[in-house]
Structure formats: structure tokens, C-alpha cells
Amino acid sequence: MGSLALISSGPSPDALLPQPVLLRVLIDPPLGPLLWRVRSDAMLRRGVTAVCNRPVDVPNDLVADVRGIGYRTFRTVLRQNGAYIAERSMPARLTALDVPVLVIFGAADPRWDPSSAHHYDTVPNARVEHLPDVGHFPMLEAPEATSELLLRFAATGR
């Protein structure tokens, strides 16, 4: 039997908040494709920190990985993620799996309404953890707390 941990995964499309301006500009035409072509490391770092609540140092390898993603791929991933949860909510999908689930949510996530994490309470064998003052990237904003939750969950399977 397996288990699953989700970090900053919105339960359904209605939980998505209005996106920060920088992300909207990067994501949407007509400026998105142009900016994506000339994006600098500083711009990519600002894009990551736009959804953080705490100051973070964005690792160079993360910037390099994002730099390696083409604009079309970037847009496709965002659209497909939206279509996936619109078709069937994450809590409904997880209930059908019947495995232990850990959901980690930043209590100050600017992408997904943090209060929407309560939708995961309907999933049997799920535990929802809110990290105070943390935005969309708990692994960058609160790496110790995030890793502690993940390690404890992996050790116990719950």
C-alpha cells in the first residue's frame, strides 16, 4: 500500500485566487510569450517569490530548471492542471485511491485559498497541515517544518 503527500495543491478550481500581477503577465498573451523569451534570472526569481509570504533565497538549480521550460509547455501545464481538477476535485480523486494522504498548505498561500484545504478533510486517511505565515512554496519558505512533516508521514505512513 502506498501513500501520497501533496504540497500547495488546490482542491478545485474555485479555490484558485486571483494571481499576482507578475504571474498574470508572464502567463497570459500578449506579453507572456515575449517576456518568456527574454526572461532573466532576476525575473524568474521574482516570479517564484511573488507567491511566497516569507523572504526566500531561490536556489540556482530551480532557476535553471524553470529556464529550461518553454513557454508553450509552461502554459500547457497550467491549463492541464486546471482541467484535471475541474474534471474531478482532488479530494474526490484521493478518496477513490484509499491511501494515507498528507496535505501541506501554507496558511498565507496567495495562489490557493488556504481555507480551501478543509475540503481535504472529507478524504479518509488524510491529514491536513497548515504552516503559519507560509505562502505557496513551503519547501522554500519553511524547509525544516516541511521536511519534518514529510519525514514523519513517510515513517508512519500516516
TrEMBL record:
Residues 21-148 form the AB hydrolase-1 domain. It holds the Pfam family Abhydrolase_6. GO terms for molecular function: catalytic activity. SUPFAM superfamilies: alpha/beta-Hydrolases. Gene3D superfamilies: alpha/beta hydrolase. InterPro entries: AB_hydrolase_1 (IPR000073), AB_hydrolase_fold (IPR029058). This is AB hydrolase-1 domain-containing protein. It comes from Streptomyces fumanus. The lineage of its organism: Bacteria, Bacillati, Actinomycetota, Actinomycetes, Kitasatosporales.
